[in-house]
Amino acid sequence: MIEKKRVASFFLILSLLYSLRKYFDLNNTETVLYFVGAIIISRLIPFNNEQNINKRYYLLWSLIPLLLMTAYMGIFLIFGDFDFGAVLYHMEMGVDGGRPTIQGNRVVYLVLSFLGFLIPMLFFKRHDRRFKVIDPLIAVILLVCNPFFWNVYDFYYGKKDLTLFENYVEPPHRLPIGAAKKNIIIIYAESTERTFADIKKGDQIFSEFMQLASTGLEAQGLRQVTNTGWTMAGFMTSQCGVPLQPRGLYRGNNFSRHENFFTGIYCLPDILSANGYYTEFMNGGGRNFAGLGAYLDGHNFNRTTHYEDYKDLVGDYTSYWGLYDDTLMEQAEKRIEELHRQKQPFAFFMATIGGHASTGFPTRTCNANLQRGDLSGMQFAIKCSGYHIQKTVETLREKGLLENTIVVIHNDHLIMDNPHSDELNSFYRMNYFTALGDGIEPQVIKREAAMFDLFPTILELMGMRLPEGRAGVGRSLMNHNKNMMEELGHGGLDTAITKDRSLREKIWNEKRPELK
């Protein structure tokens, strides 16, 4: 019986050490040390020959905390490091139309880790009376050590911080009298962070994006802060000038059916619409994913199209996230040409999906026209995305469709867990942003900033006069005063966002007057 207990203790300890190894991203050498450590510890634990002290089934107190920790580790293994706000947001919003790439070996390891903990615990509950005390103790430890526990507590009961609310500035609603109403094209390039230019083969992977940046204004130093690190957060942050503060599950409504999405503040399409712009959003993914449709419906977009609207056109040439980038760009070029003929200033937004982690989605056009060489699938997908965006910009320019027009290109968020995460993490990770077109001279702005600083930057590029360059909680990259990232630092800004309550209440619960 003692030897059985040692075997059970080995698997129990190994299960705990595996979770620590994955969470702290330790390497294979340390994994071997963990195996050796588990063997040594299991040999040192004193056991006796007690047998079947609990003949009846006995509830494990640690089972529920174990399930919660397994859920956390599962999300961590799929997405890498993540915001708790993203979990809350997607639990309430839903993920219709999306499907994350799940690596089978990670699922196997997670299941084995779960079973490696559960089965020995059940064994010990029947064969070692000490586990009447150890089991509830482990339950408490698992609960307290789970980051979810502290995030939930902090979200609902933590100390409030007014920094974000006090820094919010409502944007001006009107362009200056006599200002030229420039058309604007905004391209969200899925996951194409600028850090790809820094890694090995970066000059090949990111060449098209860097060529585009060299012809206009490029921002270097855009960091990712709390509640800006997923697709909808990227849309909202750059269009509304605030991080996407989740409301919390206690609200009880699924946002995809909710009529009030950021009703307390004015976002870019609201302002452009009030200034006579025609606004349109073309999305390579699904309409209902993460509540995108609810936001678009509530913020003055005249027309929106999504993957579902092109099903008959593309047939089976789709990825499980939606349209390939060559299809999307072809349709975008047609729409922009049509909008030019309408003789009304327009704002055209579009969102690609080609760079989506963890493998990316290179198009058949790229496979036919580009040399992949020794690039991985993910690297080639990033290059392919740049190829299509650059080709579209060149096509529009050749057709004369970029006159009196600004083109803004930026990624929605840093790329999530993928085969190159370790290499990317060894660099100062930055989002990508460039603006080119009418009146924009080539320049590089190097300063620390957050994605919500893009909102006032875009407004200024459009000709809007902003007091001190402020709009939302952002400050224009072209304004010399310090922004919130520079004032608070990365960690301080993350803390202010996490502990905010007041701005969250404003953006969700207030009702802004309609702009006329």
TrEMBL record:
Gene3D superfamilies: Alkaline Phosphatase, subunit A (3.40.720.10)
Gene Ontology molecular function, alphabetical: phosphatidylglycerol-membrane-oligosaccharide glycerophosphotransferase activity
One family name in Pfam for this protein: Sulfatase
Cellular localisation: Cell membrane
Domain Sulfatase N-terminal positions: 182-464
Membrane topology (UniProt): Multi-pass membrane protein
Enzyme class (EC, first level): transferase
Parts of the chain that traverse the membrane: 31-46, 58-79, 107-124, 136-153
Swiss-Prot/TrEMBL keywords: Cell membrane, Membrane, Transferase, Transmembrane, Transmembrane helix
GO CC aspect terms: plasma membrane
EC number: 2.7.8.20
CDD domains (alphabetical): LTA_synthase
PANTHER family xref list: LIPOTEICHOIC ACID SYNTHASE, PHOSPHOGLYCEROL TRANSFERASE I
Protein name per its UniProtKB record: Phosphoglycerol transferase
Source organism: Paenochrobactrum gallinarii
